[in-house]
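Hi there, hope your week has been kind to you so far. Thanks so much in advance, here it is.
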Amino acid sequence: MPHCLILLILVCGMLAPIQAAETVVTAKSEAIDLTRDGSYTSGAWTYRLRVYNPGTRSQATVGSMVRDGLEVKPPADGKPVETPWGAMAWHGERGTLETGGKPWGDFGWRPAVNAKQAELDATRGVMLENIEKTTDR
């Protein structure tokens, strides 16, 4: 019986990885911790970061932003958006293996390192899709 319990715990652990406690910060320009789940609010802005499979090769982070109750969509020009936490850049949607994307890495809204890098990151997904289409032939 104890072996069954251990097996059940292991299987459940693989199906639903344990998530670290979420950080909740309500302060202007508080630094964002990109290593753990967190929710950050400043005035009309809210930034939320989800970390999946933390500490593994399959780790993925997905950032989302809301302003005045509405989801902030990526700009068509790919330029960073100014927020209370500084410039935030769009890093594309998290993919799945079924759709041909990768489910690990950094996705959604993340702090921009610099404007040029942010523009490159915004177009990364489109460029990779085009490369894959030409090499699949």
